[in-house]
Amino acid sequence: MKNYDLVIIGGGPAGLAAAVKAYDLGMQNILLAERDDCLGGILNQCIHNGFGLHHFKTELTGPEYAGRYIEMLEERHIDYMLKTMVMDLAPDKTLTLMNSEYGLFSLKPKAVILAMGCRERPRGALNMPGDRPSGIFTAGTAQRLLNIDGFMPGREVVILGSGDIGLIMARRMTLEGAKVKLVAEINSFSAGLKRNIVQCLDDFNIPLYFNTTISRVVGKDRVEGVYLSKADEYFRVIPDTEVFVSCDTVLLSVGLIPENELSRKAHVKMAHQTRGPIVDNTYMTGVPGIFACGNVLHVHDLVDNVSEEAEEAAKNAVAFIEKGAWKAVLKIRQEADCKVQEGAGVSYTLPQVLNFEALEDLTRINFRVKKLYEGASIKVHFDDQEISSRKMRVMAPGAMQAVYLKKEDLDEHRPQTITVSIEEGEED
Q: Given this model, what pLDDT does residue 324 score?
């Protein structure tokens, strides 16, 4: 088994984009490790269109988007291993892998890119009362059953949660002949993109109820129905608001969790807000030489943004390898780093740290808002000083927002903290 300079864990959109970008930057000794039996990740079951509008400037389905990157990977003869499970990742970047061809084996690359994606939050994490009959699926599981395995999950459907996967499955199940009775959302806003609410619910007259949750599941062998109840601002069921809805299937679209078991084994520090690694503006974690990108870092709304982020991570991983691990930079990081934090109205920011020795002309700070805002302003503070204010017509939790910081401003102020916040009612 030969060794590799760069190992990328995960063959989904993030891993594919990172591998192609690293190769194009001159790093040819690359291995892409994927535990599934094919490349592409979650895109393989996303047969709807809407992908690639930003990155490829054309509208593609999920398999088409993945197919373009797989073609680029194979054209470059980049090594990849399928059905290969990464069992362990040590802080010194030693990887323990296993597959049927080589058995259990180890690699020690100069850099590692984490691109393992995310998983769905299951019923067990919801404390949902009631029986445990068949017919309860996560939305992604139902999507795979329908689009890849060719099985119809059910005929009368209630969907809990208005995340993008749940919205898309409302349309998909309807197109296959099922009756989607409603989508219930415990929050007062949808976690999905506006376009998906319009195209997947409004166009098919599927109602969306806010501040509503499933308070009880009914059925012994198969789901027979659910009780829906109103919920207060603390997500507690409001008594005497129960309404019974008959159905044979419940789909759960209640959030995604980054797959970070390997990150924790490598002693990578995690962010409570994103449940992904804490990274700086190079997408490097607190462990030198370990980078993270895609949904393992934070959950994205667009795959185009995943590819863009992965390319940045790959660019910096190549620089890390070629510059002898940035020894001078790493030595002063603790003194030079600046904390990026969320202020009022912001749920998280990314990156969480700025490394002043690795600044580019523009540094992008991604963030998500906590609720729906109309006519509010994005405020950026360097320590206690307001640096910028920009009024936005609409900001929603389902869509990623961003601010851009100039290198000259950062060099001039050298702030210890940067705070991104939302203020309502601000004038231009």
A: 59
Residues near 75 by beta carbon (within 8 Å), at least 6 away in sequence: none
CATH number of 122-254: 3.50.50.60
pLDDT value, residue 329: 45
Residue where the block lists tokens 């659910």: 226
In terms of pTM, does the model score above 0.90? yes
Q: Which residue has the tokens 């129905």?
A: 225
Residue with tokens 């809990």: 160
Tokens, residue 392: 């936005």
CATH of 337-428, one of 3.30.70, 3.30.160, 2.60.40, 3.40.50: 2.60.40
State which H helix or E strand residue 379 sits in.
Answer: strand 377-382
Do the beta carbons of residue 278 and residue 142 sit within 8 Å?
Answer: no
Write out 59-119 in H/E/C secondary structure: CECHHHHHHHHHHHHHHCCCEEECCCEEEEECCCCCEEEEECCCEEEEECCCEEEECCCEE
Whole-angstrom CA distances from 68 to 39, 154, 227 are 11, 33, 45
CA angle 107, 289, 40 (to 5 degrees): 65
Residue 393, CA distances (Å) to 99, 373, 396, 425 in order: 51, 8, 10, 11
pLDDT at 208: 97
- Spans of the chain below 70 pLDDT: 1, 324-336, 426-428
**Residue 193 confidence (pLDDT):** 87
Radius of gyration of the chain from Cα atoms?
23
Q: Which long-range CB contacts under 8 A does 334-339 form with residues at least 24 apart?
A: 337/280, 338/410, 338/414, 338/415, 338/416, 338/417, 338/418, 339/416, 339/417, 339/418
Q: Which CATH class is domain 1-118+256-335?
A: alpha beta
